């Protein structure tokens, strides 16, 4: 009888140990969304991807074209629907293609914002909603000159200086008499949905 | 019985202790993995950002130079430079503000600018004689003491070149070519290169022959030897392109290794560029009295201020004309962030397009 009691106690102790071990392992489990090392890595990778997209677009000369992809008559980015910016996809130009190839189909959402120089408000180019707490961003500046022309089809003959509606969102930086129209910071914000 | 109770409690407490130790171990191991992960991770993006900023500065300064050159309406270097300096100030201010928003400091200042000249003849039906107060001169100097040259391209009307058909029958055919064929003479301290252009009206071909320093056209055995040592452009098209920098020659601009001397021996050395025999008045076989020996367009961008005497005013349609441009610029740039100070580099940028 006493021997059985000892055996039972030791079995219970062993169960307790195993349970504690399982509990310990469970409380330190790492998921992609938990604040952990792997999550940090994903953010780093997303930031590097966003910076890479901007670098690739700039090297190909299409980043500036995208900033100038403006429908001056409708007062919105070329082929944007309902809003002045794109809500349901990437811009229909090469920069949009590069962004799309990099981020689509991976559960990632992207916002592209333009910050004109001289303290003007941000102009959204692509807006998919409010970014989450884990969002990362990368940015690049683009120099616009007075005689740069818009790039949206049908508006290629209009210079930024003479455009009717472009200046409402990206106004001329009048602090200077040089041939620079404005220096725009393009910011790409990426986050997991 | 009391002993048995105490032993049971002992085992229970030991079990609990082991459990606590294991939890502690799990936490310690997890912490160690995390620390190791942190230590092997790239510390920050800041050095990369500093280099990227340098790259961006180079590109943007180049586009600022191009914009200033493009927008210049008069032949006034002070104005081109002023326009560029204004643009640079505006750009630098904007960069500074944009970078401050992300906790970085950048500053860019103008260090030096180099004046250059764009020489251009756009009127394809004009001959290659000088303009301005030297108007009509058939032997003249385009520029003296230039070191670096941008594009140097001639678009020559093939029909205007000296026709050497039947020159073999002349008593001294090579002298007739050397005295009458249009050529570009490039003078360096180590010698003079002469680039002759002429055609055979029967075969319809156009030739380009280069006389190296110390050599003489007269030393060749005859016209056939001259032709066989030339770059040849076949009988198509109405104009032939001579591109010194590529180096190419012909209607469809094929490689002409003879012109390679310009890149290998001339660029980088102080040199003068002259046109010779743009129009000659010899008579005789194939030499129709006073006639143009070259007509067409040309464009040269040099890194020095060319004498304006042989050129017409700065209007876009004047041919030939010379115009001040910015050839090169150096700027000093500084980049500071929490962990990186990168600064006072002399960043150099050159013009890329002049329209």
| Main β-sheet, spatial strand arrangement of chain B | 11-10-9-3-17-1-18-19
The greatest inter-chain interface is formed by: A-B, 43 and 48 residues
Provide mean pLDDT of chain B, rounded. Answer: 85
CATH topology of the largest domain in chain B: Jelly Rolls
Could you please describe the fold and organization of this structure?
The complex is a heterodimer of chains A (193) and B (355). In chain A, strand 1 (70-71) and strand 2 (76-77) form a beta hairpin. The model of chain A has no long low-confidence stretch (mean pLDDT 85). Chain A has helices spanning 2-27, 37-59, 62-67, 94-103, 166-169, and strands spanning 70-71, 76-77, 108-116, 123-126, 136-145, 180-192. Chain A is of the alpha+beta class and 193 residues long. Chain B has 2 domains: 50-115 and 325-350; 123-315, Jelly Rolls (Sandwich), CATH 2.60.120. Chain B has helices at 2-40, 46-71, 77-100, 173-180, 223-228, 261-266, and strands spanning 105-121, 140-146, 149-157, 162-163, 182-188, 191-200, 205-211, 231-233, 239-243, 248-250, 254-255, 271-276, 279-280, 283-284, 287-288, 291-292, 296-302, 321-336, 341-350. In chain B, a hairpin with a 2-residue loop joins strand 5 and strand 6. In chain B, helix 2 (46-71) runs antiparallel to helix 3 (77-100). The longest helix of chain B is centred in the first third of the chain and has 39 residues, at 2-40. Chain B starts with a helix and ends in a 5-residue tail after the last strand. In chain B, 37% of the residues are buried. At the A-B interface, helix 1, helix 2, strand 5 and strand 6 of A face helix 1, helix 2 and helix 3 of B.
